[in-house]
Amino acid sequence: MAKFELKLPKMGESVAEATITNWLKEVGEKIEEDEAVLEIATDKVDSEVPSEVEGTLVEKLFGPDDVVKVGQTIAIIETDGDAPAPAPSSNENKEEANTQQAEDMVNQAREAVVSQDFSSSDRFYSPLVKNIAQEENIGLNELESIQGTGKDGRVTKNDILDFVANRGKNQSSTQPVAANNASAEAKTQKPAAAPISVNGDDEIIEMTRMGKMISHHMVNSVQTSAHVQSFIEVDVTKIWNWRNKVKNEFQKKEGEKITFTPIFMEAVAKAIKDFPMINISVDGDKIIKRKNINLGMAAALPNGDLIVPVIKNADRLNLVGMSKAVNDLAGRARGGKLKPDDTQGGTYTVTNVGTFGSIMGTPIINQPQVAILALGAIRKVPAVVETPDGDFIGIRYKMFLSHSYDHRVVNGALGGQFVQRVAQYLEAFDDSRAV
Q1: Closest by Cα among 142, 221, 148 to 185
Q2: Residue ranges per domain, the chain?
Q3: d(CA 320, CA 343)
Q4: What is the rounded distance in angstroms from the CA atom of residue 234 to the CA atom of residue 230?
Q5: Gap between the Cα atoms of 306 and 299, Å rounded
Q6: Beta bridge partners of 427
Q7: Average pLDDT, stretch 142-147?
Q8: HSE (CB half, 13 Å, CA atoms) of 54?
Q9: What pTM was estimated for this model as a whole?
Q10: How many angstroms separate the CA atoms of 415 and 231, rounded?
Q11: Closest CA to 144 of 194, 191, 192, 182
């Protein structure tokens, strides 16, 4: 028998840790190679951790809601060797007792850490900061009192470690600490919410973990960016007719369905190359101009939550490549198969509100980006058609583009010109292009 350490795998350059949400296997169960052992969650996406070997799960080192760092051992799997399994004996009982003792030690260590609930705070704290706070028994009042040096005053890893290092000096007398905590609590106390009455016929539904994250992310975005919108109507008749003409041939040739989304994404990527200052982020008083064009594609999940997988280097893809990327990410998003890296690094986001029949919308910017484009429903409408021989009323396929942008760094001229350029690319679509 040999023992294999199952470690939390690397999940992308910007992902350093994950939260265990659910164990799919119990101690004593057999595990096949590549079979999922547990489910994890990062700030962006849920995922599964498969086993690299075939064997039996003999030890779990963490439980649900525990935060684990990349590369850390999370379970022990016993693999079959050439030697036959030993018969039950006092040694086996001793080994079982040792295993139980190890589990008890892990449980005691967990109980020693005071479980803190930071959800009542209006401030954003990363999982790493909250994990350190729990390990160091830092209460919410103390955490709120830390002056953050990160973006928008966020508490960074160094901020909380500095606080821990100087904590003993700050606690030289208990009375000042109590006074400081009371002062911090008074400063951070938010206005009391209006009471909500609940009667016996009402149903109380707990928000999902992802729902809470989306809620905080949206509120943070509105508080961070000065949102302004521009709207423009686009004639997409050429695109509508071209897609109907080639969709069967496209699927037969490429093995992929051709939808409108990759065509729109292609136009957005072209417009970003024309207006690179829409592809930026704000860091305090500095502007970060992004080199790569990574398009986020907002996707609704079956449970109603929202996720934004990212098409990396979208400007380098032709229409076939864009179609494959869109279909792959959309399919894996609906099936819960996205990897954490699939949602990282976005520089501009597109959301399709027309999927649900909306003709336009005012989307909230996906931080730390500075703009987002909403695609409205395509409608068949009567419209004035201009020709060299005169104007006439014709049936056209039209849609609205709704562009939200951060007025701190994107003025009305840039925001309006950008969405106008997207519309120009769509209306100038070459309906004679080959599949």
Answers
A1: 142
A2: 2-112, 227-427
A3: 21
A4: 13
A5: 6
A6: none
A7: 83
A8: 4
A9: 0.65
A10: 10
A11: 182
Return the CATH fold of 227-427. Chloramphenicol Acetyltransferase (3.30.559)
Write down the pLDDT at residue 149.
Answer: 79
Give the separation between CA 404 and CA 372, rounded to whole angstroms: 5
How far apart are alpha carbons 266 and 259 in whole angstroms? 12
Interacting residues of 9 by C-beta distance below 8 A, sequence separation 6+: 49, 70
Higher-scoring residue by pLDDT: 233, 205: 233
61 phi and psi angles, rounded to 5 deg: -95, -10
What architecture is the 2-112 domain classified under in CATH?
Beta Barrel (2.40)
| Alpha-carbon dihedral angle through residues 223, 224, 225, 227, given to the nearest 10 degrees | -10
Query: What backbone phi and psi angles, to 5 degrees, belong to 218?
Result: -70, -45
The phi and psi torsions of 295 (rounded to 5 degrees) equal -90, 120
Element (H, E) at 288: strand 286-289
Give me 48's structure tokens.
């599964």
Q: What is the largest CA-CA distance in the chain?
A: 99
Tokens of 282: 């704000």
3-state secondary structure of 402: strand
Closest C-alpha among 27, 24, 13 to residue 70: 13
Q: Can you tell me the distance from the alpha carbon of 297 to that of 341, in angstroms, rounded to the nearest whole number?
A: 14
368: preceding bond cis by omega (within 30 degrees): yes
- Determine the Cα–Cα distance for residues 432 and 172; give it in Å rounded to an integer: 78
With contact defined as beta carbons under 8 Å apart, do 290 and 371 qualify? no
Summarised one tens digit per residue, pLDDT across range 64-118 is 888 899 899 999 999 886 433 444 444 444 445 444 554 444 444 344 333 455 6
* Owner of token pair 């695109």: 239
Kindly report, residue by residue over 371-407, the tens digit of the pLDDT: 999 999 999 999 999 889 999 999 999 999 999 999 9
* Euclidean distance between CA atoms 183 and 320, whole angstroms: 60
Tokens of 356: 């649900």
Residue found under tokens 């997207």? 422
Residue 251 has pLDDT above 60, yes or no: yes
Nearest Cα residue to 401 out of 381, 417, 380? 417
